[in-house]
């Protein structure tokens, strides 16, 4: 079974509008972490936002927020006020276990969603 | 602010040739990783290391070997390259258990390898 599923191969959004990128995950661990990375066309991997499984509040970082629904095992990324520079591939990833645990920080990635922002 | 540096950035090999990708990090991170990225498959873990002198297999280790003789360096080797190893390779590092609030991975810029 896929541990991380991103069901949207591609998404389009108008500049200045908000967009939600979906991510569902599968784990039996109680402690885990969820990450979103951005990969622009230049290829580098940029860390955007993190949510710990025990965090009660949804994570926010500037225009990025993570809509964490633990019971549904979903960790959707919301980008508000989209900008042309947000056009990129976005990856959801999960670390099973705590930071100091035997997962040794390994991340499992989803397939990615290509976001295109139209002017 | 070098962070994680990978060399080379691009390489073309013929089937059966060997090569080594070098990853160097200057953040004193304990953990290091090699991933490969293929279209529609996200990033998949090849091998990882939790400290100098240690290595372990990830999800797709076949056809690759690694070594971590120094804490700051993590080498990925292909002994006999195959077309199926055409991919973009990413090295990453993380602080591990010390002083990280998220455990995020810091990535290099990637190395594009083509095997003909």
Characterise the protein shown here.
- The complex is a heterodimer of chains A (119) and B (116).
- Helices cover 0% and strands 49% of the residues of chain A.
- Chain A contains no helices and twelve strands.
- In chain A, strands 2, 5, 6, 10, 11 and 12 form a six-stranded mixed sheet that branches.
- In chain A, a hairpin with a 4-residue loop joins strand 8 (64-69) and strand 9 (74-79).
- Chain A starts with a strand and ends with a strand.
- Chain B is built from no helices and eleven strands.
- Chain B has strands at residues 4-7, 10-13, 19-25, 31-37, 43-49, 56-57, 65-67, 73-78, 87-94, 106-107, 111-115.
- In chain B, the strands form two sheets. In chain B, strands 2, 4, 5, 6, 9, 10 and 11 form a seven-stranded mixed sheet that branches. In chain B, strands 1-3-8-7 form a four-stranded antiparallel sheet, with no helix packed on it.
- The A-B interface holds A 4, 9, 33, 35, 37, 43-45, 47, 50, 52, 91, 93, 95, 99-100, 104-112 and B 31, 33, 35, 40-45, 48, 50, 56, 58, 88, 90, 92, 94, 96-97, 100, 102-107, 109-110.
């Amino acid at each position: 079974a896929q541990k991380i599923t991103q069901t949207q191969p591609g998404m389009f959004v108008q500049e200045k509008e908000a967009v939600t990128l979906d991510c569902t995950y599968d784990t039996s661990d109680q402690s885990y972490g969820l990450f979103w990375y951005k990969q622009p066309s230049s290829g580098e991997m940029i860390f955007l936002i993190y949510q710990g499984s025990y965090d009660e509040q949804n994570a926010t970082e500037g225009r990025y927020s993570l809509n964490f629904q633990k019971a549904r095992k979903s960790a959707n990324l919301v980008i508000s006020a989209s900008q042309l520079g947000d056009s990129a591939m976005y990856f959801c990833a999960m670390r099973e276990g705590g930071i100091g645990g035997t997962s040794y920080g390994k991340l499992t990635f989803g397939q990615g969603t290509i976001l295109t922002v139209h002017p | 602010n070098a962070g994680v540096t990978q060399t080379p950035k691009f390489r073309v090999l013929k089937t059966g040739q060997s090569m080594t990708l070098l990853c160097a990090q200057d953040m004193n991170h304990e953990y290091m990783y090699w991933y490969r990225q293929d279209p529609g498959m996200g990033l998949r873990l090849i091998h990882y290391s939790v400290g100098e002198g240690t290595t372990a297999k990830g999800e797709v280790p076949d056809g690759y070997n690694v070594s971590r003789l120094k804490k700051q360096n993590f080498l990925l080797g292909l002994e006999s390259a195959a077309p199926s190893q055409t991919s973009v390779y990413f090295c990453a590092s993380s602080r591990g258990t010390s002083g990280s609030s998220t455990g995020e991975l810091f990535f290099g810029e990637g190395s594009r390898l083509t095997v003909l």
